[in-house]
Input
Amino acid sequence: MEIKEMVAAARKAQVIYDEYFDQEKADLVVKLTAKAMFDNADELARMAHTETQMGNYKDKRTKVLNKSKGLWNDLKGKKSMGLISIDEVTNLMEIAKPIGVVAGIIPMTNPVVTVMSKVMFALKTKNAIIVSPHPKAKNTCVHTVKLIKEAICSHNVPEDLVQIIDEPTLEKTQELMHECDVVVATGGMPMVKSAYSSGKPSFGVGAGNVQVIIDRYIDLDEAAEKIITGRSFDNGIICSGEQSFIYPQEEKEDVFAAFMRHGAYIAPEADREKLVNTLFVNGSINRDIVGQDVFVIAKKAGIQIPENTRVIVIEAKGVGEEDIISKEKMCPVLAAFPYKFFEEAIEIAKTNLNLEGSGHTAAIHSNNQANIIKAGSELAVSRLIVNAPSATTAGGSLQNGLPVTNTLGCGSWGNNSISENFTYKHLLNITHIAPLSARMHVPTDEEIWYS
Output
């Protein structure tokens, strides 16, 4: 089917869905979508790993299980259509309406959960969606959509409400972005830029380069385990995964000892150049190491690492442009930076983020609320993760207040339209009904200017 035919069919299906599905019916469909992913997590994880050759099966399975639960838990009970609010003082009313047809652009790094979240957001808001997968993850995406459609078809959901381009090309994706009503682009920066150039409202993501500040007076073993867990999860392909840790200089011995106890290999000077040249080619990340485990990276670099290694740590020789290791590394490798005082830690994080990752995410392990707020105030990021693995919680968690998603906005810092986690509310048009209210006090000129 041609793209224009797919969009035309989606528009017809969306009108039917909008007319016949109320909040209860739509929410049931959303729940069934999540449950289908939860029930098939094992198969989908194996398929994604086999097809993309990135990450690992175990973490992909965990990702599908946790995201499906988290998404449904986050979405259930929330109003997403019709009258969604009335202000008791102003009488201002908000009426939520669907946008129409969503173009969901899917990366190869997270094919299952990104399809799932975008479909759930569309169904929650009574929109149609056409999925455009990365060519190297198309089979996984097609099967994911097939399972979703099988789960919801018995509830009279129109067949063409959820569609997928089964043989994706750049040309087809670009045409879809021009024909749809809104674009949600998760993927590399060229694709995001293309979405913003499509002429349609678009939500994109920015590059990640999560800087982690380790404060003084904390449990170093606890922090090391969380940082390593985040960095090693799915072999480091998640954009919100930890990239560098910034530690108190006088605690170097204790910090590194804690990291080693939890599976870090601290690269000696003799290994450094081999590793850096393996990670980066002509100033850019080596695609052959993206999402690969530490032993593949070590073998490519020609070095030996212990059997229990979970991450490789490389000590930085400079900050930002002074050392390429300051950039994003989409594999289980961390850069380490010492600092003398807390303000210097923030400056190191700022410098590295200015090089790459501005607007995305940073993390801190601290018991000092003033330092936590200081980092949040001074770093140009949309999320600051506190005392938790950034990779698995920046996209929302059952234990934090961030909306569960796989699309993380980076604000103007990252050339994005939003500086928050993308969720269902971004797929709504809102009509504001604004009567005059007798409950509102009309101030006099004196009250406005002199009180």
Observations:
- DSSP finds 16 helices and 17 strands in the chain.
